[in-house]
Amino acid sequence: MLILIVxxxxxxxxxxxxxxxxxxxxxxxxxxxxxxCLFWTFIDYxxxxxxxxxxxxxxxxxxxxIFHKTWHSTFxxxxxxxxxxxxxxxxxxxxxxxxxxIIDSCNKLPDYTKSRCGYSACxxxxxxxxxxxxxxxxxxxxxxFLIFGSALFLKIFYYKRRAQQQIRWRHCRKxxxxxxPIFIIYFIISVPLLILNTAYASGVPMSVAADYYSFxxxxxxxxxxxxxxxxxxxxxxxxxQRSLFFQRLRAIIVVRTRRIVPMK
Length: 264
Description:
The protein is mostly helical. It has 8 helices and no strands.
């Protein structure tokens, strides 16, 4: 899961962040074509939501891996609680924003003086889609992340003090430590946005704290920047462990092959 999150983070940086950096530096997009602007907007919305959803599910899955380890004991169980949710959380944003920006025929002319050429307006022209995108895709995801993340630490603290014999803490320490910096980063980023979006959804005028909201939206990109950095150590360890596993597997295959080869 962590490798997948970092992959989408890096892909987002190499596509969306490059396009945005060029636009804010020069005041114009990389290419003056509607297809490029639509691609830029689609990738921006889609990949960002994929990263958010994968982080939310990683938070939920930490509960499973620490407190319900038997749920991963067989391939069928792993397929149900790991692979299928992961595939759904990747496919859903792609299909959703394909409908918003492509299938629903956003006929807006590109404005090359605006970020994403103004195509972000396509996500707001349908009130039902706009509400679903804000409430379900972002506000509910953020709320689930905060609830399950906070509950995870409270539950760990409780079991550490009250039921220490029930959990193998050495096995779980890596899962907890690698999750802590990600939780801190997205907690700092998501709480102000959740409060402001809830206020706006409750009828507060968008003009209230508009500058602060714009700053929070800009600051949210730091989650994309920082996640690969704070997870480098654990990804390196996992890569080394897998490399060692394949080296041992190769050695076993070579030994068995030599035993099978008949003597001349």
